[in-house]
């Protein structure tokens, strides 16, 4: 019997699973506050996205730009209006901002701390994919410049850049990201072809995407 869920089969359930665990725990402390708890969880991830944006802007530019960028994001109706009620788009924002930050830190710390930031980037990529498979598409403008950066700085990192190390990093990145994408996706556990269907649906920009 094929497990089907309509359009829901195209959505991995990582965030829903995490949210369910948190809600189940908090309901024991605050019974009858189901809706409020859901809103609080979404709001927390939204504020964490703003925190990531602030840190990224401060790292690349300065404090003034970081404050301005964070404020403009906060007062943007498309972000502010969804902070507590949207369990998809603002979570995607959280994953994207922290993926960008981790990737940036991976590049500039390639000589010393690359592995730690690689794991962080993999976790945030996996978290984003665990919400929506099409998340990968919006990370391409981040991944490509990172590759170009490493190529252009080949002389600086020549003692660290090697086929073996790059292959190792790619393997870790793909393994962690893919695992997080499918770990809470019951439809794909029953039928791996669901992933192919989801990719096709995403490319056609049809359905929930």
Q: Can you walk me through this structure?
A:
- With 209 residues, the chain is an all-alpha fold.
- Helices cover 72% and strands 0% of the residues.
- The protein is globular.
- It starts with 13 loop residues before the first helix and ends in a 5-residue tail after the last helix.
- The model is unreliable at 1-5 (pLDDT under 50).
Keywords for this entry:
single chain, 209 residues, mainly alpha, 72% helix, globular, disordered N terminus
Secondary structure: elements and pairs:
Elements: H1 14-29, H2 34-60, H3 63-75, H4 77-80, H5 89-108, H6 114-129, H7 135-152, H8 163-182, H9 186-190, H10 193-204
Helix pairs in contact: 1-2, 2-3, 2-5, 5-6, 5-7, 6-8
Task: Write a concise synopsis of the structure shown.
Helix content is 72%, strand content 0%. By secondary structure, the chain is an all-alpha fold. The two termini are 26 Å apart.
């Amino acid at each position: 019997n094929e497990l089907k869920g309509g359009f829901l089969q195209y959505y991995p359930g990582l965030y829903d699973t995490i949210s369910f665990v948190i809600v189940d725990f908090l309901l024991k402390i605050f019974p009858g506050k189901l809706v409020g708890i859901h809103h609080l969880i979404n709001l927390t991830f939204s504020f964490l996205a703003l925190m990531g944006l602030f840190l990224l802007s401060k790292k690349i530019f300065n404090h003034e730009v970081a404050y301005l960028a964070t404020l403009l994001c906060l007062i943007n109706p498309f972000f502010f209006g969804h902070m507590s009620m949207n369990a998809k788009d603002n979570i995607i924002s959280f994953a994207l901002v922290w993926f960008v930050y981790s990737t940036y830190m991976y590049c500039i710390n390639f000589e010393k701390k690359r592995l730690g930031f690689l794991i962080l980037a993999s976790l945030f990529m996996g978290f984003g994919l665990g919400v929506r498979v099409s998340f990968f598409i919006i990370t391409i403008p981040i991944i490509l410049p990172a590759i170009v950066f490493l190529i252009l700085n080949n002389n600086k990192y020549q003692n660290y850049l090697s086929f073996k190390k790059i292959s190792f990093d790619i393997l870790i990145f793909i393994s962690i990201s893919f695992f997080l994408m499918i770990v809470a996706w019951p439809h794909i556990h029953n039928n791996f072809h669901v992933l192919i269907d989801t990719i096709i649906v995403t490319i056609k920009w049809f359905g929930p995407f």
